[in-house]
Design a protein that fits this description.
The complex is a heterodimer of chains A (298) and B (267).
Chain A: H1 2-13, H2 19-53, H3 68-71, H4 74-87, H5 94-125, H6 127-142, H7 148-156, H8 160-184, H9 188-197, H10 201-238, H11 244-253, H12 257-285, H13 292-296
Chain B: E1 3-15, E2 21-33, E3 37-41, H1 48-56, E4 63-68, E5 71-72, E6 80-83, H2 95-105, H3 110-123, H4 139-151, E7 157-161, H5 169-186, E8 189-194, H6 197-203, E9 206-210, E10 217-222, H7 231-234, H8 238-266
Parallel strand pairs in B: 3-8, 3-9, 6-7, 7-8
Antiparallel strand pairs in B: 1-2, 1-4, 4-5, 9-10
The chains are: A mainly alpha (298), B alpha/beta (267).
């Protein structure tokens, strides 16, 4: 028996690296260099074609192939970003715009996730609640919730809370449905086992149902932070004092496509950073799961 | 001697999704003595697992009476342990936390629960694996963890639902011997469900044969092989083959009935 344990343990830890292992490591490093090189190549190609296509001279007053008046150009987008960073935007310093949008998105995200998890777990656990509320939730979910933005601007005003409200509404449903499904999918055997081991109803929720639903909930967080940003930006677009959405709206109003693209670039950076942070959080929270899912991720 | 478990005229019906009722058990009588190891064998789908669900209190009977230690079963009792056929350890808990789950649910402090868990992990031969998660263990090791998780509550009634059916033959024999060792220290009353007649005879004091569904008791056989037993070697004793033949004569008809039925459903 102890022999069995010892042999299984060495299988888990793995033997010393051999020369073929080293060759494999080298091949992996080479591949990573190749992939990164090609990535940079794609960016250079796209931006180069865009830049050259919008070049104006005496024979091409509207650009070589693309009119920069409508489509902007990479160099003017870069100089727009530089101007914003140096001199601030029309409605104040650039960092304040980014911070405002982030604050709205983060607040909307946290509140929406909290409500979504609470309602999802509650309706998932209590059959009666689920049966009563199902038609209402389906109806609300079917509605294009962006239109609520106008209502929130009217009732709450131009401050950040109208944007937070819109983000909450968008985030809530994504998280709610995942939490609900996660609770419904809990392995019946695990619940039976917990009950035999002595779990009371509350312990069933905290020790079995919530952890089991957690992988579903965490999967929804990636999508829902995107939705929180959409809510914040669209809310600002509809009416605000600060924020990236307002920058886009101002750039659109002054026929400044480079400004729109520059704001989009900032949004992309914000969204990607949030994605990295969420992936880190997910790996921390469900380290018990085999890494099959991260393998297929792009 | 007092019966640890007693089922009297027990019937269990389920409502199928199509609205008809399905009778899993009909008029089943079964008694298990205090400290007895009782194996229940029968063809697939004869209601063996249902019997365990009734004794554990996870399911109420549709008719008849289920008593555990002279009390009618109403809900899950404190004295019962249940080892499931499939993996039932919690995948998000480490081995230590999994084994400590029972005492924690029952209000033991974390320090005491962890201390007891470490002791049980040692007893089932998993020392050194306290920090591992179930997906990092082999099937046999997960089964050991499940066994420790159940036994740490020191159940007087131990229910086992084909616990070793997913293991390879060698691991299985090892686990069967270890189970007998652990059991001889606790002397709990065991109901061990299996479809493997050899396993049933090797482990049990008594073998109960259940008919093809709706399940009811077809025959009860005493196994008077001496203890302590070595599961790997007991199969070669002449007495073992004699009991095997006797029970198999009974079981064969039921297996054929259930096989004919499954063919009919397929065709």
């Amino acid at each position: 028996m102890s022999a069995l344990s010892a042999s299984s343990r060495s299988a888990l830890v793995g033997p010393e690296p051999t020369s073929s292992d080293l060759a494999r490591t080298r091949a992996r490093t080479n591949r990573r260099l190749l992939v990164n090189g090609l990535r940079v190549g794609v960016a250079v190609l796209l931006l180069g074609v865009w830049e050259i296509g919008t070049t104006k001279d005496a024979t091409h007053p509207d650009g070589l192939w693309i009119d920069p008046f409508f489509y902007g150009r990479p160099s003017s987008i870069a100089s727009q970003l530089w101007t914003w960073a140096q001199n601030g935007t029309a409605q104040g310093p650039l960092w304040l715009q980014v911070a405002t949008t982030l604050e709205e998105a983060a607040l909307g995200f946290l509140i929406g996730v909290g409500l979504g998890v609470i309602f999802g777990v509650a309706l998932g656990r209590v059959r009666l609640l689920a049966d009563v509320f199902a038609p209402y939730i389906k109806a609300l979910n079917a509605m294009p919730r962006i239109v609520l933005g106008s209502i929130f601007i009217l009732t709450i005003g131009y401050n950040i809370w109208s944007k937070v409200a819109l983000a909450v509404v968008l985030v809530f449903f994504v998280v709610f449905f995942n939490a609900f499904q996660g609770v419904r999918e809990v392995d019946r055997v695990l619940i039976a086992n917990a009950r035999i081991l002595g779990a009371k109803e509350r312990q069933l929720s905290t020790d079995v149902i919530f952890p089991s639903a957690l992988s579903w909930i965490l999967a929804s967080l990636h999508t829902s932070f995107g939705f929180a940003l959409v809510g914040a930006v669209v809310g600002e677009y509809l009416g605000a004092y600060q924020g990236i959405g307002l920058m886009i709206s101002t750039a659109q109003g002054t026929f400044n496509p480079s400004g729109v693209f520059a704001a989009m670039f900032i949004l992309a950076v914000v969204a990607l950073s949030a994605e990295v942070a969420l992936t880190w959080l997910e790996n921390r929270l469900i380290k018990w799961r085999p890494n099959t899912i991260t393998d297929v991720r792009i | 001697m007092a019966s640890a478990i007693e089922l009297r005229h027990v019937t269990k019906r389920f409502l199928t999704p199509s609205g008809t009722t399905y009778t899993a058990l009909r008029d089943l009588d079964l008694a298990v003595q205090e400290g007895e190891f009782c194996a229940v064998v029968g063809p697939t789908g004869c209601g063996k697992s249902t019997t365990l669900a009734l004794i554990s209190g996870l399911e109420p009977p549709s008719g008849g009476e289920v008593r555990v230690r002279d009390e009618i079963v109403r809900g899950v009792g404190r004295d019962v342990g249940y080892v499931f056929q499939v993996d039932a350890v919690f995948p998000w808990k480490s081995v230590l936390d999994n084994v400590a789950t029972g005492p924690r649910f029952r209000g033991v402090t974390r320090r005491d629960a962890d201390e007891r868990a470490r002791d049980w992990i040692k007893r089932v031969g998993l020392a050194g694996f306290e920090r591992y998660y179930p997906h990092q263990l082999s099937g046999g090791m997960r089964k050991r963890a499940a066994l420790a998780q159940t036994l740490i509550n020191e159940p007087r009634i131990l229910l086992m639902d084909e616990p070793f059916s997913a293991l390879d033959v060698q691991t299985r024999t090892l686990m069967e011997n270890e189970l007998l060792q652990l059991w001889s220290a606790t002397r709990a009353s065991v109901v061990f469900v299996t479809h493997d007649l050899e396993e049933a005879i090797a482990l049990a004091d008594r073998v109960v044969v259940i008919t093809a569904g709706p399940g009811t008791v077809k025959g009860v056989y005493r196994v008077d092989l001496p203890r302590p037993r070595n599961v790997a070697e007991i199969r070669f004793q002449p007495e073992f083959s004699r009991i095997y033949q006797e029970i198999w004569n009974d079981l064969r008809d039921e297996v054929l009935v259930s096989y004919e039925r499954s063919k009919r459903i397929v065709s």
